[in-house]
Fold this protein.
Amino acid sequence: MTVMEQRGAYRPTPPPAWQPRMDPAPLLPDARPYRVLGTDAAAEADPALLRRLYAELVRGRRYNAQATALTKQGRLAVYPSSTGQEACEVAAALVLEERDWLFPSYRDTLAAVARGLDPVQALTLLRGDWHTGYDPHEHRVAPLCTPLATQLPHAVGLAHAARLKGDDVVALALVGDGGTSEGDFHEALNFAAVWQAPVVFLVQNNGFAISVPLEKQTAAPSLAHKAVGYGMPGRLVDGNDAVAVHQVLGEAVAHARAGGGPTLIEAVTYRIDAHTNADDATRYRGADEVETWRAHDPIALLEHELTERGLLDESGIQAARDAAETMAADLRERMNQDPSLDPMDLFAHVYAEPTPQLREQEALLRAELAAEQEGAHR
Amino acid sequence: MTTVALKPATMAQALTRALRDAMAADPTVHVMGEDVGTLGGVFRVTDGLAKEFGEDRVTDTPLAEAGILGTAVGMAMYGLRPVVEMQFDAFAYPAFEQLISHVARMRNRTRGTMPLPITVRVPYGGGIGGVEHHSDSSEAYYMATPGLHVVTPATVADAYGLLRAAIASDDPVVFLEPKRLYWSKDSWNPEEPQTVEPIGRAVVRRTGRSATLITYGPSVPVCLEAAEAATAEGWDLEVVDLRSLVPFDDETVAASVRRTGRAVVVHESGGYGGPGGEIAARVTERCFHHLEAPVLRVAGFDIPYPPPMLERHHLPGVDRILDAVGRLQWEAES
């Protein structure tokens, strides 16, 4: 057979037909963050929900202020304030059923408190008397997570396990804009979508990862757009509009509970305070920008809606502030007491049973403490 | 008297049997990882499990080690006992943050309220002609992380027993599987496999009077071979198989060295900052007055794991061990 004949015998087949696996259009976020307050839709919002959100926002703002003051008094090692972001924090806590789980990052103490945690226990990590001050199973709040985005796969795994057990539990995981650059963010979203796990990811885009602005963090059209690549819906919401955040989160939670799988929500908000008390925010942003966001304050937005509709008057505002003040006074008083620490706790929870090596070290510390005691009595 | 039917079995078969028995005994045990389902694992350790227990309990995950271990954390939080496979030693590195920042310390962070009973299976070590990133001995990293148990079997029977113990443990266990022993055969009773003592006990594999070889995992058979060869030189070597690197069995090791007065630590991973330094120090602290010579180390070189055509020069072999044993006839420098 000649070469030409061979060529003639070769019948190229077309490649297997290719089609996109799904229509990406329904996954795409809206072009603008979803808003309720200040629009006609606000009239349909439930007055009881509005009042509850308002009371929690005022309390949350006061909590942030009190905790920040406690850092200045040296009572807290550090406090990453969520002032300006209270609408996200509060909505995240209120949208969940009791059986659901919340996976907070280090900035989300307020969400944990709004979910019912003792405010003092919620601050244990930041005070420095232990790493976590509460039993995560009690309120179904995972430990505050300091490494970025590493709590997201935990949320996916827990939601997946719950579904395997036949429980209609949803996990809500909180992360910041900086956290979306981490590998764990990617892996968590991918696993969640592949497993159709009942989990909701809420990105609080507050503008900065410490000092790095969003435009240096990502080239995506929006953080919500990242959802499309995983095959889950992305939603964009005004993070300072408590009603809008509550609605969008509520829909995503219901969707997950019904077996619809995960959702990625980007709440566009702003961190009014510095990253922590150790940060100087004037080095990376102008006062004008902060003032613009102050004018779009989550409490003011909701207060305006409530007063316009005659659901709130001066005495109602005062009542909310008084309740917040009572919480703050209690927090202040309890945080000003020195925690009682047992140094032997250092060895208590490394393993179910201490290793022989840890028992030796335990004995050493016990002897040192006894010698200290003896010295003190002398 | 009942007769026990002993049959030749490989370490891989014993591991499979351990996984199957653990899953049958406890419905909360879940196996997950890349290729563990349909394929049965690249080393076939999970062979047949997906068919027997279904995809919900034997899950082929997306290819992402941090995701595999990170989701296992969440599953353990909800009451499951995940057994995750990291396909090869060096493939586990992307999961290090999850391992170190969460798996190892969740019990501690939460004052004991959130223990994580996760078993992380890591095929490790060289000697199988693997290309780069397929032969690392990463045990020193795991040993340096409080909150983890670190175990490694050297025999078929221990592979079964230790894996059952690891899965039953309420603490996370890094289970290091010596790849080059996967196909090693032993007489073993697959009908009535035995469990082992609690994790943390070493075992004397060979008794002897003149020196102790302290070793574990893939180096155990090498040390036994060296001990046999050493008889020609008049050395009667004892071989201690650690089985568990964390917790460490000081008692068995020190008792052996006190009997023999001399010790060599043998492992594949690099010597500098490696397990041998820790072990030599512990032995010296406990047996100083019994020692006739310094505790020596025979380890892999302090190099990135070499390409397969050179690995025989890197791995501690019988000759290098015998050399060290010869140096135990130590005389103080004048």
Q: What stands out?
A: The mean pLDDT of chain B is 95. Chain B touches chain A through 46 residues (CB under 8 Å). The radius of gyration of chain B is 20 Å. The CA atoms of residues 81 and 137 of chain B lie 26 Å apart.
